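Tip: read the tokens left to right.
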């Protein structure tokens, strides 16, 4: 019961989200975990569905929140092997599939390589869907903050090298909104160029 007290006064949905996320991270990321299924997925020894079965035995029972659990699982697996993780979405209706991918991008950790993050965001069909477009912009904002802290000017150079398009624009806008004035100014200048 003490664990729940650390979650604050969040609503029930936020608490469920946190419990599921923490359970998966404890299995996959914790130094105390002996699970190597992400390593096996990364090297093609296990499929995403096999990793999911292992995880369901070792993590919190999501009960009625299986969709939330599956969404978090996809995000965790996408960071290791995006193409293998995409298999988990094959049975979802198209709109739900796009939402799960966009949510995974928004929740991506700093450990997701920028090229994998780009591949994930490019896989999202957000055409005509303002909500998904907003989620993708939020995802790029989050990545800008994390990757600028981690790579500095190298991240900006990588973004500048992207082909023209919505993701490059979102990436530059994310940098412009960052707390790094020099990078923000340079990104803003690029965005206003014809």
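Filled-in amino acids:
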């Amino acid at each position: 019961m003490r664990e729940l007290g650390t979650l604050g006064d969040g609503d029930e949905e936020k608490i469920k989200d946190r419990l599921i996320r923490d359970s998966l991270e404890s299995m996959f990321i914790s130094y105390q975990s002996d699970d190597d299924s992400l390593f096996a997925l990364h090297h093609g020894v296990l499929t995403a569905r096999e990793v999911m079965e292992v995880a369901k035995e070792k993590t919190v029972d999501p009960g009625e929140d299986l969709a939330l659990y599956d969404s978090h699982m996809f995000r965790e697996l996408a960071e290791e092997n995006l193409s293998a993780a995409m298999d988990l979405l094959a049975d979802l209706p198209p709109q739900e599939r796009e939402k799960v991918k966009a949510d995974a991008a928004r929740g991506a950790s700093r450990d997701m390589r920028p090229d994998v993050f780009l591949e994930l965001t490019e896989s999202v069909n957000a055409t005509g869907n303002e909500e998904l477009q907003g989620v993708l912009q939020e995802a790029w904002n989050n990545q800008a903050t994390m990757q600028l802290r981690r790579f500095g000017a190298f991240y900006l150079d990588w973004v500048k090298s992207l082909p023209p398009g919505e993701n490059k624009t979102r990436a530059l806008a994310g940098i412009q909104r960052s707390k790094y004035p020099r990078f923000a100014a340079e990104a803003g200048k690029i965005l206003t160029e014809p």
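The chain has a mean pLDDT of 88. The chain has two domains: 1-91, 111-194.
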